[in-house]
Design brief:
By secondary structure, the protein is α+β, with helices and mostly antiparallel strands. It is 19% helix and 35% strand.
């Protein structure tokens, strides 16, 4: 299981890459493998300011639909447009081309987990 050291994580299996005040967010390798083949990603919160743990979208796999939870407070500024035509990028490249949204961070990020803490959570 791939858990990049440079990223931060949540108990809900989102990953966060923080660069300045912009956070790129997606779901972890563990999450995509648990969900199976992803067929649709829906995010209708671009332009919205959301708090930690609010739902920012959903990901639909062959067998289930899961909510996506905000790992940081902030304004959703961008959606990965590639996912409209290629939702399978979340499966094939969850930490790269499969990112979901970018957020202008407006809150504290200290509650995010390190790679080591996340690995312990998922038993990796």
């Amino acid at each position: 299981m791939n858990i990049p050291q440079e990223l931060k994580y949540t108990k809900d299996h989102e990953w966060v890459k923080i660069e300045g005040d912009i956070a790129t967010i997606g779901i972890t390798d563990f999450a995509q493998s648990e969900l199976g083949d992803i067929v649709y990603v829906e995010v209708e919160t671009v332009g919205d300011s959301l708090d930690v743990e609010e739902v920012f979208g959903t990901v639909e796999a062959v067998k289930t639909v899961s909510d996506l939870f905000m790992p940081v407070s902030g304004e959703v500024t961008e959606l990965n447009e590639k996912l409209a035509d290629e939702p399978e990028l979340v499966n094939s490249d969850p930490y790269g081309e499969g990112w979901m949204v970018k957020v202008k961070v407006s809150g504290d990020t200290s509650s995010l987990m390190s790679a080591e803490e996340y690995a312990e959570l998922v038993g990796a």
